[in-house]
Every structure is written in structure tokens, then in C-alpha cells.
Task: inverse folding
DNA sequence: CGATTAATTGACAAAACTCAATACGAGTGG
DNA sequence: CCACTCGTATTGAGTTTTGTCAATTAATCG
């Protein structure tokens, strides 16, 4: 997948005007990369907060980001993880209803929402892509609802591993940038249940965990079967 | 809320061309009402199926619709309920990933997706509204994820009742068009848990149920508190 | 009024959660 | 290079919530 580096990207102001001419039917990601300014975020840093005005649209250049909502009593739901190449910040019209934090040290490209909208007004293809991305996020959210509503712990973990594998161009293993607590809050489980379920899958020979955040698939078919009948 | 009747709506072919001129900055709902054709669906009838090409965009005129996904083993997740005035069918780009069924006898207005898109190309305001509606659906889906991920049965039921009340212009009561099974599949619970939880709320004096599908709020503040810290 | 579907209730089982203790691992300083 | 520390992850024991299966009651429709 895309692995943007700020060094290889022309600086914003220089490229701005020219870019828009060059990309009349531009890929959204390209345009964001060219129009946007790159920012670094440390592990745990907040990219935007709940109730903050939604002024920018974002793209992960490197690292990983979580979209989360925290409750008064400490419960937390993670709505999505964003990996390099992913665009986010589309889920708000006026203000954000979730916050976004950097899971590890990350680089994120920011574009003014107003600039993208202005571009979309002129370029129908751009409008179509912005809408399409939003529909894509909606489908992911629906797919996630499915998982949260009716899957047991093992099915959730299996679905999660397959999802992450599908989003990395992985051989037969996944590198997890997020903690067990993040996974738990994404899947609607406790950290203990996540841990036990992973251990059980390892005992069953389905996966191996050389280190806790690197998971090797020994029997991808078995994982597939746990997902049976559901979209990823 | 809107309570469209097919009789009061000009027939499609007659009004089509004129309509578009009349509504240069039209409300999306208005335009759909004027451009669309009205169809009746019996209770339980399928409006569109999973994997079907997404050819239309829909608006509920009367009745109620559920968006659902069925598994091989019989588990079902309901992703959303649509009530009069609600627009749906935006969650797909090419093909539907959920099916939609009429919960009771309903009337639904259909518009060719291509016609709306063509309109959006000409009218930026229309494009903005289509995108905005999609974002709205995404926010609802995220809010629903939250509920499914971390709420207990009582909190889910309370959230559901408040949501439905908010969507009907209701005094202190809700009329539920859907069965207990539909509610259960929406909330990620079993029908028995839904039933028991409602009974418990009635015992506690929070609600009354003169009949099973009509729920009166005796203590809305108590319901509110069960929702504490969460968006509806 | 009887038949059929929808909803409730009860008794028990299972899955996941809670609380507490222990182990692992990365980073730091001796 | 090793020992120490702190955050992260795993494991265990016991509890709670929700699910399952079965029976009963209520509502709806001819």
C-alpha cells in the first residue's frame, strides 16, 4: 500500500496551483497528497477531538490512527483504525463526533475541507470520489456493526485478523500497531477476552505469536471458516 | 414528519421535466418526491436484496423499512430502521451489501440513482445534499456501533426507545412498527432479553406498555440517564 | 370463536466480565 | 551486558449477564 514520505512529496505551497491543473480527474489520494501539508504526531497524540469543528480531511502517510469515543465512565469504543493510504475525517459535516489519536508515531497529511469541497465543485470526478469514499466508510461501519452485534469472541478476533491482513499487503502474517486494549475496544470485548482468545487460537495451531504484536497465520482456512457467511 | 401520499403527488412522467427547473436548489427529499415513482410493499416484502445492483435511491412515504443482513446460520443483524421521510439506498455504490424489507405495509418512492447523480452534476447543492445525507447515515452507523459495542441490555433498550421517540414527533410515547425480533436483531440481543428488559423497565415504573408495540414514557429522565454519556 | 403468530416468563447453561496475580518486553542506567 | 522499572500482556478463579430451550400467555386475523 501507499507509504508516503514527506521527503518525496513536493512542499505544499509550491505545488498547490500547478497540481490542480495536472489532476483534472485526479485520484483523491493523489490530490490530497499534493495539496496537503504533512504533520507528525507522537504516539498517543490527538489529531482531532470530539466536538471540534471538522476543518480538515486527513490521510495517513505513515503509522496508524484510531477513531474513538470515550465515555464518562471510562468505556471506550474504537470506530475504526486507519493505516497508511487511508483517508479519514469524512465522517463529520460540522463537528467531529469521535476523536482521532495517533496509535504510534505517525505522519498525517491534512487538507482544508473547504479546499477539497471547492475542488469538488469544479471537478465532478472529485465530487464523485469524495462521495464514494464516504460510502466506503459507511459500508465499513455497517460491516463492523454486524461484527459487534452478533459475533462471539472467536469470530470477532478472526474477523479482525483477516481485516488487518487484508489491509496490509501481507504474506501470511500481520503486524499489529495497536495495543490489546485498542483491539478490545474496537471489537467490543475486554482486554482479557482478547488475550485469552488469541492464546486459544495459538493452542489450536491456527496462529502463532512470536511476539504479541506479530501474528502468523498457520491455518488461514480455519480463520476464514470462523468468519463464515459474513463480509469482512 | 413528512407523510407522503401517492395521491397528492403529481405522477412521475408528467412532472419530471418541469420539476427539475423548479427546484434548482431543491431539498433532496422534495426532488425525490417529485422525480420518483411510488411503490407499495406488503408487510415483509423485499425492497432490494443483498448483492443486487444498487439502481435506485429510496424514500419512505409511509410505513417502515428495515435494512438487514442474514447469515447462513440464521443470525441476522438489522443495520437501520427507516421511517417516513427517511432516504435510504445510499449505502451502496455498485451493489447492496444489506437487503431492505418492508416492516409493515409501506409506500416507498423510488428514483433512479443515475437520475439523481445527473442532477447532482448540474446542481452543486444537490451534490452537497447527497453527500450530506450519506455522512448522516455514516454518523448513525457509528453511533449504532457504539451501542452494540459497549452497552448492556438496559442501555441498549433505553437508547433504542429514545432514538425512536426522537424520530417520531411524539409526546411522551412511541409507536413501534417492528416486532420484538426486529428490535433484538437491531440491538444485538435475543428476543427474550428484549422482552425481559422491557418488562423490567415497566416494573420499575419507567415505562408503560398498554399494548406491546405502544410504549409510554413515565420517567424520561430515567431513560436519559441510562444513556448517559452517549450520543443517541 | 378458534387458529396462528407474537410476546412473555421460567429454569438452566454458557460466554464474557471482573478482580487479582503473574509474566513478558522494551527502554534505562549502573 | 545485566538488572531494574514501567507499561503491556497473560493467566486464574469466581461472578454476572445474556443466551438457550421450553412452556405459557397475549394479540391478531380470518
Result:
Amino acid at each position: 500500500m501507499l507509504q508516503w514520505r514527506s521527503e518525496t512529496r513536493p512542499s505544499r505551497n509550491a505545488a498547490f496551483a500547478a497540481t490542480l491543473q495536472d489532476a483534472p480527474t485526479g485520484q483523491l489520494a493523489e490530490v490530497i497528497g499534493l495539496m496537503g501539508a504533512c504533520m507528525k504526531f507522537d504516539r498517543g497524540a490527538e489529531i482531532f477531538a470530539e466536538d471540534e469543528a471538522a476543518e480538515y480531511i486527513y490521510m495517513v502517510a505513515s503509522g496508524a490512527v484510531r477513531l474513538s469515543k470515550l465515555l464518562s465512565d471510562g468505556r471506550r469504543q474504537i470506530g475504526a483504525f486507519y493505516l497508511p493510504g487511508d483517508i479519514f475525517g469524512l465522517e463529520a459535516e460540522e463537528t467531529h463526533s469521535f476523536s482521532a489519536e495517533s496509535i504510534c508515531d505517525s505522519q498525517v497529511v491534512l487538507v482544508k475541507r473547504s479546499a477539497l469541497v471547492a475542488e469538488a465543485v469544479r471537478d465532478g470526478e472529485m465530487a464523485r470520489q469524495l462521495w464514494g469514499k464516504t460510502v466506503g466508510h459507511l459500508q465499513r461501519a455497517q460491516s463492523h456493526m454486524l461484527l459487534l452485534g452478533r459475533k462471539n469472541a472467536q469470530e470477532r478476533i478472526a474477523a479482525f485478523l483477516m481485516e488487518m491482513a487484508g489491509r496490509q499487503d501481507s504474506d501470511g502474517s500481520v503486524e499489529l500497531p495497536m495495543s490489546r486494549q485498542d483491539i478490545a475496544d474496537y471489537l467490543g470485548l475486554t482486554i482479557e477476552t482478547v488475550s485469552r482468545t488469541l492464546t486459544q487460537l495459538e493452542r489450536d495451531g491456527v496462529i502463532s505469536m512470536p511476539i504479541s504484536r506479530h501474528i502468523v497465520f498457520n491455518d488461514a482456512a480455519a480463520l476464514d471458516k470462523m468468519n463464515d457467511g459474513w463480509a469482512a
